[in-house]
Specification:
Layout (H helix, E strand, L loop, with lengths): L2 H26 L12 H29 L3 H28 L9 H12 L2 H30 L3 H28 L1
Helix pairs in contact: 1-4, 1-5, 2-3, 2-4, 2-5, 3-6, 4-5, 5-6
Length: 185
């Protein structure tokens, strides 16, 4: 085995280990996007704004990484869609929050930072699989739940309307990710 081939094998093994750690961490920790079922009214609105903003930032950042690192064109195409759509929704959410005087904390959660670290360590097909699983399926499953909850129980009409209008797009993102996940396995 030549040295360059050995390095490629070592990178692949390291990438697989990083993806495995990411998947294990995501499976074991409760969702940080989850909002307590008892949350309602202004408390729900504040949690919704914060978590929706954090998720948009994580998805856009991870999708920019995917444009550079994904091996499959369909993964890069999905990433470009996520950048466009989540940049738009992030801007709209920030405008609504500003109008109603609600602060937006878009700093990534500890779990989001762990996801990004593991994604940045992944290479090749392992990156594609991890990106689709974590940013595509898991993040959008959580986002659909979050937006449904705000649409049904939020107290601010502008935020409820935003959640209701955005929900079909998030559901479409989830469907696209589930289809994509079947092709990258």
């Amino acid at each position: 085995m030549t040295l360059p081939r050995f390095s490629r094998v070592a990178r692949t093994l390291a990438s697989a280990a990083a993806v495995g750690a990411l998947m294990s961490a995501c499976a074991m920790l409760p969702s940080q996007m989850a909002v307590p079922a008892s949350a309602s009214g202004p408390d729900l609105d504040a949690l919704f704004v914060s978590r929706a903003a954090q998720t948009d930032v994580m998805e856009v950042t991870a999708s920019r990484m995917a444009l550079q690192r994904a091996t499959r064109p369909e993964v890069r195409q999905y990433a470009q869609s996520m950048i466009s759509d989540h940049t738009r929704t992030s801007t709209e959410l920030q405008q609504i929050a500003s109008q109603i005087g609600m602060p937006v904390d878009a700093r990534p959660t500890e779990m989001d930072e762990k996801k990004m670290t593991a994604l940045s360590a992944a290479q090749g097909e392992a990156f594609d699989k991890a990106y689709v699983k974590v940013v595509g399926v898991q993040a959008h499953t959580e986002a659909v739940t979050l937006f449904k909850q705000e649409a049904a129980k939020g107290s601010n009409p502008a935020l409820r309307s935003f959640a209701t209008r955005t929900l079909p797009s998030l559901q479409h993102h989830l469907q696209m990710a589930e289809q994509l996940e079947k092709t990258v396995k």
